UniProtKB/TrEMBL annotation:
Gene Ontology BP terms: regulation of translation
Designated name of the protein: Uncharacterized protein
Keyword Protein biosynthesis: yes
Biased composition (Polar residues): 14-46
């Protein structure tokens, strides 16, 4: 699939990851990481204590890197881009052949293992290039962002509608991703034997839809706990102001679900 509408990620662009910030703060506040001051020559005849043996700089470097290495996520995630496409249906009259809708998927990354890997993708994604009806997804490895994926057949989504003004939609999307990939949302519903399978960011004209996919769409207790976990986890100015701004819906309740589960998507790798 051609990705002319969604440029490939530029991994050469520096990431503003939280781990980089942590490393900078650590070096500025931890004297053991700072450069040692030059020792002054002692000219007095008074005996002095011999210098203590010091670890090599390479050993110190390894220790710092180990201490600052981002903790891995509980699950490995994949980043996807999807956009609608049409597949012509063969009929006797090719000039009037109808088109059946499907989605073209492009795998952007399959190695989202920790927060640094997430921010390498998030900070370098050309969000302004994501058009209406297109989506960017983060899904657990082995699950595709499609209704027809076996893991999604009985599931559903919390959908949050966020205005795009003042960058609120992108901020809310970032916070939801951190809550989900970091495991906080999964912890909220673990006792209900439900699972967070993925998230989707789908821009519209004036707002963006942020969808959080769960495996069990009929588990009311899990749905309620997830709702509370998301609202509590968002920054105060990003929380929904009314129940009109978000809803939960099972996939099978969507018009076209029965047709969609019989269709196949086209998939490419970036």
């Amino acid at each position: 699939m051609s990705m002319s509408s969604f440029p490939a990620l530029d991994e050469t662009v520096p990431s503003r990851s939280r781990s980089a910030t942590l490393e900078s703060l650590s070096r500025s506040r931890n004297p053991s990481v700072s450069r040692a001051a030059p020792q002054q020559q002692v000219t007095s005849d008074v005996p002095t204590r011999p210098p203590m043996p010091r670890r090599s700089s390479s050993a110190m470097h390894r220790e710092v890197l180990t201490r600052l290495r981002p903790m891995p996520f509980q699950y490995i995630w994949c980043a996807w881009h999807s956009k609608p496409s049409v597949s012509p249906v063969s009929t006797p009259n090719e000039d009037t052949a109808p088109a059946s809708p499907t989605y073209a998927l492009t795998l952007l990354s399959q190695e989202v293992k920790d927060v640094a890997a997430f921010y390498r993708i998030f900070n370098n994604t050309p969000w302004s290039s994501v058009k209406a009806k297109e989506s960017v997804h983060f899904f657990r490895t082995g699950v595709k962002p499609l209704w027809e994926d076996p893991q999604n057949l009985d599931g559903g989504c919390w959908v949050f509608k966020v205005r795009k003004e003042d960058g609120k939609a992108q901020r809310a999307w970032e916070e939801c991703c951190v809550l989900a990939l970091g495991g906080q949302l999964q912890s909220a519903i673990a006792d209900e034997h439900d699972h967070i399978l993925g998230l989707s960011y789908s821009p519209r004209l004036y707002q963006a839809h942020i969808s959080i996919w769960t495996q069990s769409g009929a588990n009311k207790q899990s749905i309620a706990k997830l709702e509370q976990a998301v609202i509590d986890g968002l920054s105060e100015d990003l929380r929904p102001k009314s129940s009109m701004e978000y809803y939960y819906k099972m996939h099978r309740e969507h018009e076209g679900f029965e047709e969609a589960v019989g269709l196949k998507s086209t998939e490419t790798q970036a």
